[in-house]
Design a protein that fits this description.
Length: about 240
């Protein structure tokens, strides 16, 4: 079991993050026109709008919260006077609200993709797989809240901070920080890493398409020919 734990939380993170980075770059370089959300936007537009807004806003806050909460050095929180308990309460409340928003949105999107024959016909198997995995991941995150409330002092949260920062600083002992963590957290981490691994091969890459496209696109200028416009305006339509 120790070897499995070390692989899942000490080696697998590097595999998943490497595939995420290199796979996204390779796909954008070789298949830039596949960086889109798909062609089903005109089907069930109202359900798509509500599901998309709730899901994307919720996930945005969740991702930002995880990024700041896990990767900010502990001494920074200490310097700002933010206790572990206060950070834990903020994570539970804010994460809970964002998680509920995201899972409602994901439910609407999953229902639309699975039960609407027209949307299902225009979907690839990976489209359905990834939305289901995201839904399960959100459910695991919400299910971890009762466990977090049992450790409101923030001691358990510090373990995950040390683990995440250990991964990014290439600490070979990073996995040891969460050896005795609850299974719900381990499942949440493993599935999150798996979603990162699958990211470049799904339509999730459209989340990166807007900033990349507008940063790197070449500038252009529209030029009109005045003579041609003037001639066109004086053209007569012959009577039938």
């Amino acid at each position: 079991m120790a070897y499995i734990h070390t692989f899942l939380f000490g080696i697998y993170p590097y595999i998943a993050l490497s595939v995420l980075a290199l796979g996204s770059i390779f796909r954008y370089d070789r298949e830039p026109y596949t960086w889109r959300s798909g062609s089903s936007q005109l089907l069930r537009r109202k359900q798509l709008m509500w599901g998309s807004v709730l899901f994307h806003v919720g996930v945005l806050f969740i991702f930002a919260g995880h990024f700041v909460g896990l990767l900010t050095p502990i001494w920074v929180f200490d310097a700002l006077g933010v206790s572990h308990e206060a950070k834990q309460i903020l994570a539970v409340v804010a994460g809970g609200i964002a998680g509920v928003m995201a899972i409602i949105g994901a439910s609407l999107l999953a229902h639309r993709r699975v039960f609407d024959p027209r949307v299902r016909a225009s979907s690839r198997p990976t489209d359905t797989l990834i939305i289901i995995l995201l839904w399960v991941q959100l459910l695991l995150g919400l299910s971890s809240i009762p466990v977090s409330l049992q450790h409101i002092d923030g001691h358990e949260m510090v373990k995950f901070m040390n683990w995440a920062q250990g991964i990014f600083t290439f600490n070979p002992e990073a996995s040891s920080y969460i050896t005795d963590a609850s299974i719900i957290f381990k499942m949440h981490i493993f599935l999150g890493l798996t979603i990162f691994l699958l990211f470049p091969f799904t339509r999730l890459v459209h989340m990166l398409s807007a900033p990349v496209r507008y940063i790197w696109r070449p500038g252009y200028q529209v030029v009109r020919e005045r003579n041609h416009t003037a001639q066109s305006s004086h053209m007569r339509i012959p009577a039938e």
